[in-house]
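Narrative summary of target 7.
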Amino acid sequence: MTTKLSSACTTRVTAAFTSAVACVALFAAAPAVAEKADRKEKITINAVDGDADHGKGFYRLEKNVVIAQGTLRITADRGTAQTTANDNYNATLTGKPVCFRQRTDNADWAQGVADRVDYDSGKGIVELIGNATLFVGDDETRANYITYNTQTSKYEARDSKQRTSEGKGVTFVLAPRDNNEDAPASAAGTGAAAPAAPAAATAAKPVANSRAPKTKTDSPPKRNEPAFSRCA
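Modeled conformation, tokenized:
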């Protein structure tokens, strides 16, 4: 039986991320696995209009589509969602653009935009297809096709899903890492000798490559590109 969804419909599906899939990635980000608490949250699917076959677990969504689970949010113009036997779902979404975002366990945000997004909630894999851009923290990736594993933070970028077309290639922009290795100013050349430290005193040595923990924010950082505001 097929049911017509009413305007501004809301469909709720209980699901959890259950399995991790190895991803052959061209680049692996610094550890920034998706927030584990999201996996315990209910999945909410919103749209202005659409059709649902609850028996088959199939949903066709139209206008202002939003899929949310904890900090995960995907927005699109239209799409379909199919629930699976283990209470996960697969979604195919299109828009101008489709926007994805999710906070990671280390308080960074993963943010992506593309012409199309395929999402497998069980595997935690997001596929960004067509004019794709992905930020993980401040690291940026641009390609025609990017696949991002939210459970491992590994991602792969190339010109096409099947590697059959040539395009603009792949661009990685990596933010500098703070390694706290700046040496203290030297007293040499001042004409004065540095005072000797008392024998009983022990100075704490800074730990190299340490980084202060980040504060979790409720919303992702603003990007220069307006497309990212769609899933802010």
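The chain has a mean pLDDT of 75.
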